[in-house]
Amino acid sequence: MPLLNDFLQNIFFDKNYIISLQQLRQSCYQILHQYLRPYYMSTTFLLPLLGFATALIISAYSIPVIIKVAFIRKIYDKPGGRKTHKGYVPNLGGIAIFAGFTLSFVCWTNFSDSVYLQYLILGLIILHFIGVKDDIVPLTPYKKLIGQLLAAAILVVPGKFRINDLHGILGLYQISAPCSIGLSIFAVVLLINSFNLIDGIDGLAGGISLLISLIFSYIFWIVGMNNALIASLALTGALVSFLFYNKQPARIFMGDAGSMCIGYLMAAFSFLFMKANSEVQNNLFHHNPAVLIAFFIVPLFDTFRVFTIRILHKKSPFEADSNHIHHKLQLLGLSHGKIALTLTAVNASFIGFAYLLSNVSPTWLIISCFMMCCLLTTILYYTIGQQKGSAQNPRPLPEFKIIHAIELSTLPPRKRKPIEVSKTELSEISSN
Q1: Cα–Cα distance, 190 to 186 (Å, whole number)
Q2: CA–CA distances in Å: residue 180 to residues 40, 105, 169, 413
Q3: Distance (Å, rounded) from C-alpha 346 to C-alpha 203?
Q4: Closest CA to 156 of 270, 293, 285
Q5: Neighbouring C-alpha atoms within 13 Å toward the C-beta of 419
Q6: What is the rounded CA–CA span in Å between residue 111 and residue 429?
Q7: Pairing of strands 172-174, 402-403
Q8: Which of 81, 126, 192, 299 could serve as 263's disulfide partner, Cβ 3.0–4.6 Å?
Q9: In 137-254, where does DSSP find H-type helix?
Q10: Distance from first CA to last CA of the chain, Å, rounded?
Q11: In the chain, helix, strand, coil percent, each to 5?
Q12: Which of 339, 56, 71 is nearest to 202 (CA)?
């Protein structure tokens, strides 16, 4: 034991034994690159793959431990009220997503290429701990909003993740620095709350996030943004592991710590996408930033619709209710898995629609997406109304003819034939 204590003390306190994270990353990269080189693995694609694998493994191994500890400490989500799950389910899955993404991103990203990425991690850490606090001891919506504004301000002001050009949306192009900062902070907070609100059933928020993260990964790979590709694939790996435990019936929820961090990262990816739109010549979406509305169409439109309904009913926009789109689909009798697949497919369809119309003006693309959402919502409400109407006014049962058994006993065995008697005749016989 004294030898072990001396050894650990030398490792953690003697500077001769300290190996920096950068040196560790370079050593791992050289070893793996040496063995993978015969397979012609490109340098720019090796680190993103390592980021995906690292996040996948860390999240996969940490989730069972989190579930066990949550049950021991009785930190779980109880059924009842608006909640649709039946048993006690831990809601600390966001810790596994955060751990998988952060450790993978820090390990494999070259921060010397982009010094502003450190502010991305700083804001993510702040938002994560606010989410964990809310998952264990619920916070008021306004306290969470203050934390979201702080994380967004760190990302936008020192991190310089901003919207500098609207590319013709509403006729606007370059905007001033104060407007850019204000609009960027608003966009970050909007996406954080959109993903937080859509996390209502098993697999929904994780499935949509996985879809969008994969698309961002493909775009960053096409345009050659290696650090952004590592980040998006690290998030993808963490989400794949989480969805394995979040499919119906869910064994763990991501909670606010997961949904808010995902929304925050999606906002950062959106800023990087807009930067690529401005700098790269051959772009996948024809330099049209309005396609981001299609990327997040399900969370954004659901948030817009729910907030509008609450305000029209003179309620707080942050007051919880059952007006979300997934609640409406549950009225049709769909299971959690079918709802998650349906809304993920709708989101993917809008992304494909935006890709086909990416050469039109950004304003018309946004209007087209909004009108299509209104049309689909109208069809959904009409279907729910038709189902309720048929349930309240059932079709009258036909007047079945009943066989009177008394008449059968008066006939010989070979000549017994059923005598059909109507309801009215049966009532007369019974009265006599």
Answers
A1: 6
A2: 43, 27, 14, 95
A3: 15
A4: 270
A5: 13
A6: 94
A7: unpaired
A8: 192
A9: 141-156, 177-198, 204-223, 226-246
A10: 102
A11: 70, 5, 30
A12: 339
Higher-scoring residue by pLDDT: 368, 170: 368
Surface-to-core class of residue 53, CB atoms within 10 Å of its CB (0-12 exposed, 13-18 middle, 19+ buried): middle
Q: Which pLDDT tens digit goes with each residue over 275-297? A: 887 666 556 666 678 889 999 99
pLDDT tens per residue, range 295-327:
999 999 999 999 999 999 888 888 888 888 988
H helix runs in 73-170, sequence order: 93-108, 117-136, 141-156
pTM value > 0.70: yes
Per the omega criterion (within 30 degrees of 0), is the bond before 138 cis?
Answer: no
b/e per residue, 173-190, with b = 16+ CB within 10 A? Answer: eebeeeebbebbbebbbb
- Per-residue pLDDT, 12: 37
Pair 227, 254: CB distance under 8 Å: no
Q: What angle do CA 172, 175, 181 make, to 5 degrees?
A: 130
Structure tokens at 279: 């700098």
Radius of gyration of the chain (CA): 29
Number of other residues whose CB lies within 10 A of the CB of residue 137 = 8
Q: Name the residue type at position 107.
A: C
pLDDT of 426: 52
Supply the pLDDT for residue 322: 83
- Residue 208: HSE in the Cβ half-sphere, 13 Å Cα cutoff: 33
- In this structure, are residues 144 and 256 in contact, taking their beta carbons and an 8 Å threshold? yes
User: Which SS3 state, helix, strand or coil, does residue 284 take?
Assistant: coil
- What is the amino acid identity at position 150? L
Question: In one letter, which amino acid is 160?
Answer: K
The pLDDT tens digits of the residues spanning 126-135 come to 999 999 999 9
| 33-58: average pLDDT | 75
